[in-house]
Each structure stands twice: as C-alpha cells, then as structure tokens.
Amino acid sequence: MELAELEIFQAVAREQSITRAARTLERVQSNVTTRIKQLEESLGVALFQRDSKKMLLTPEGQRLLVYAEQLLALAEEARQSMRTTAPSGRLRLGSMESSAATVLPKPLGRYHAAWPEVELTVTTGTTQFLADAVLAHRLDCAVVAHPGTGAPRSLDVAALGEGLDGVFLRTEELVLVLPATHPKVRLPRDVTLRHLAAFARGCTYRQCAEDWLESGGEEMRRRLSVVEMPSYHAIFAYVSGGSAVGIVPRSLLALHPDAAEFHTVPIRPVHTFLVRRSGFSTSAYEAFLRELRHD
C-alpha cells in the first residue's frame, strides 16, 4: 500500500462518492476509480459496496479505514517533525461547542494571522466524541471538559481515554438555566420541570447536570427526561419556551442577548483541557498551544 492510495481511499470513504472525492483531491475521476480498484485487488477484498448513489464501506473497508486514519496521521506528523522552522502542514482541532464560541476565537485569529500556511480544521462535538477522535487519529488535539471534581493538577486526563495527555486551559462555572417564570431554585428538589435540554451522551456538562438533578431523590431520578439538542441556540430556545431546564457554562450564557431573562443555578466548576495523543507533537500544534496559553 502507498500513502497516496490510502489518501484516495480515505477521501472516497468520507465523501461516499468517487466524483466528490476526485473534486476534493483535485484528481480526475478515472484516476480515483483506478486507484481504488488497484487497492482492492492488492488486498484481495472489496472495500466498497457500490450502488447508483453512494459508495459505502464494506466491513473490510471499515477496518482498513481505521488503519488508514492512523497511518496518514503518523505520516503527516513525521513530515512536520522534519520541519524545524515555521509551523506548516495540517492541524486538525476538535472543540466543544461552548469552547468554540468562548475560548477559541481570539487564539485562532492570532494563529491564522501568524501562520496562514497551516491548514487548520475545526470539528465540534461532545467531550467523549472528541477524545475518541484524537485517539483514533481523526483529530490531532481537542478542547474538552474533564468530569473530575478535584484541582486541575490532580486530574488524570487518561480518564477520558487511555493514551491521552492534556494541558489545563481554564475553569468554567457550570449553571442550570431555567425559564423566567420558574420559581426560585436552591436545591435539586426545587426544580419543577422534568426535562433537561442538553447535548448527546458523552457530554461532560450533561453528565454534571444529570448528577446534580438526580441527587434530588428517587422521584427526580425516575421522572428526569433528557431532550437532546443540536446546539446551544436550541437549548436556550427550548428553555425560553418553558418546557425544560438547560445546562451551559456561564461564559457562554454571558454571550446570549437575553441572558438576564433566565434564572440560573450554580452547579459546579468544570476544568477545560487541551488533549492530544501521548507523544504527539508538531510545530503546528506547539504554535497553537502557545496561542491558547497567551490568553
């Protein structure tokens, strides 16, 4: 196998289309088709299920994609390690939605201004999704929330996934947001609404909210229902409608134009880290870390 073949295979797997992959790779379509056929012949397996609309991975293709992601990421890391001057190449960054809005804008702006030749991509998701993506070589690093309650120095980042290292960035104050019409809340049992608007499982903030609400007793644990939302805009809208409570970091709530219209209840502090695979280091990553620490 050649790296070029794996890059073509990866592109087709992502795009689920020869035509779109060829466009992404800036290759002619016939070349992409030929290289995929050659790769399948050399491995002796079919990598894609072909129909009139999509190129879907076979079980063998799914297994190869795991290795392809790792090999291509290591190749990129090796290329960058040979360049000891200015950062270049690629940096695939992951971030929670809230950090993308509050932590990253200024550092990313400075980073792009200083190193415009770095190909930077940003992917958002829950903490567990991002940690898994870093370990699977789909991302180089990610801004995530640690579920632990101790001081930052006492927390083991490997709790998010064996093989991760992390750098502490900041501490967020996590708050429960309630409709303006909701009675005052001091304890979990004071919450009259039984719906929690939050992100999908794997979100550290969601788990913190569930733990706090369920500490209100057996009835709360039995009746609590989580409504999964696609964004913080959706969470705020759902809470404003009076149907649910939501969970957000206070720094993000401060950006909302109608923040004063919500009731808030402090839940707990949560520490934010930049995580990477143990041993991973490139000039592009180190330059980005310096920008994050600048703030």
UniProtKB/TrEMBL annotation:
Keyword Transcription regulation applies: yes
The protein, known as: LysR family transcriptional regulator
Signal peptide range in chain numbering: none
GO molecular function: DNA-binding transcription factor activity; transcription cis-regulatory region binding
Alphabetized UniProt keyword annotations: DNA-binding, Transcription, Transcription regulation
SUPFAM superfamilies: Periplasmic binding protein-like II, Winged helix' DNA-binding domain
Top-rank taxon: Bacteria
Domain HTH lysR-type intervals: 1-58
Pfam families to which the protein is assigned, alphabetical: HTH_1, LysR_substrate
Similarity comment: Belongs to the LysR transcriptional regulatory family.
